[in-house]
Design brief:
The chain contains three helices and eight strands, in the order ααβββββαβββ. It has 134 residues and is α+β, with helices and mostly antiparallel strands.
């Protein structure tokens, strides 16, 4: 099975709404963490796999379901909000081709946000359930 997060990142960075918020040339979307050699600008987003175990249906385990957490960080609340909204607009209820995988379902299961007074950054998060069809 193809690795979902790099495929999802590639899919997102090709979208105009994502480029408008996260940069048009070096799109500030990262998988798992920011490379420490990169000096990043705000806003940026990190995609993380948060699978805890398989989901089950009456017929048994559903191995082709992934849970992804997207965290958008910014020094301004407005750009943290607009970053999360741009990603939500592209992934909420999406079905179709995404690189080497076919997404059968994409649901936003949770949204939250906070402010870290130490780093003075806003974080806006989405939890997304992605069902793959092959």
């Amino acid at each position: 099975m193809a690795e979902l997060l790099p495929i999802m990142r590639t899919y997102l960075i090709g979208k105009t709404g994502i480029k408008a918020v996260f940069g048009s040339t070096l799109v500030r979307l990262y998988v798992d963490r920011i490379d420490p050699r990169i000096t990043t600008a705000y806003p940026f987003a990190i995609l993380r796999d948060i699978n805890g175990g398989p989901d089950y249906a009456h017929d048994g385990a559903m191995p082709d379901t992934n849970f992804v957490q997207v965290d958008v960080y910014s020094d301004a609340q407005s750009t943290a909000d607009s970053g999360r909204a741009a990603i939500e607009a592209e992934l909420s209820a999406y079905k179709g081709a995404m690189g080497a995988i076919t997404v059968g379902s994409s649901f936003i299961s949770n949204k939250r946000g906070d402010f870290d007074p130490d780093s003075r950054t806003f974080r806006r998060s989405l939890d997304i359930e992605i069902g793959q069809n092959g």
